[in-house]
UniProtKB/TrEMBL annotation:
Location of the protein in the cell: Cytoplasm
Pfam families per the UniProt record, alphabetical: RuvX (PF03652)
Keywords, sorted A to Z: Cytoplasm, Hydrolase, Nuclease, Ribosome biogenesis
Record GO cellular component, one term: cytosol
Function: Could be a nuclease involved in processing of the 5'-end of pre-16S rRNA.
Entry-linked Gene3D superfamilies: YqgF/RNase H-like domain
GO molecular function, one term: hydrolase activity, acting on ester bonds
Superkingdom assignment: Bacteria
Protein name from the UniProt record: Putative pre-16S rRNA nuclease
Length: 140
């Protein structure tokens, strides 16, 4: 049976999300959750998890171009992943997201020009890139 996987692009002001199926290895953007200094409204995330019933959560791990932790954001993304696991009891994996924002911006721009580059769109598209790259790492 194919697993449903939900991915998150963690940020201190906004957390993008995407959903994907193991069988197709593709992902679709869901929504961006507003965050207050990295803390989302957990009820909103819970609603989305209940609606989609994912088997696994993937959180993008921000690092520098050499794979090293960035000052505070890397640890905060790890903490967010731990909280997701603690609250919802689902397995959570961290996935290197080094170039996801750049790639997301480029994808969105190619589809809709500057108008497509709203913060929420970029964050959700980043979550799509993270999830599709996770699929590639698992099954590529």
């Amino acid at each position: 049976m194919s697993k449903t996987i939900m991915a998150f692009d963690f940020g201190t002001k906004s957390i993008g999300s995407a959903i994907g199926q193991e069988v197709t290895g593709t992902a679709s953007p869901l929504k961006a959750f507003k965050a207050n200094d990295g803390i989302p409204n957990w009820d909103d995330i819970e609603k989305q998890i209940k609606e989609w019933q994912p088997n696994l959560l993937v959180v993008g791990l921000p690092t520098d171009l050499h794979g090293k932790d960035l000052e505070s954001i890397t640890q905060r993304a790890r903490k967010f992943a731990k909280r997701l696991h603690g609250r919802f009891g689902l397995p959570v994996e961290l996935h290197d997201e080094r170039l996801s924002t750049t790639e997301a911006r480029s994808d969105l721009f190619n589809r809709g020009g500057y108008k497509a580059l709203s913060k929420g769109n970029v964050d959700c598209q980043s979550a799509v890139v993270i999830l599709e790259s996770w699929f590639e790492a698992q099954y590529g």
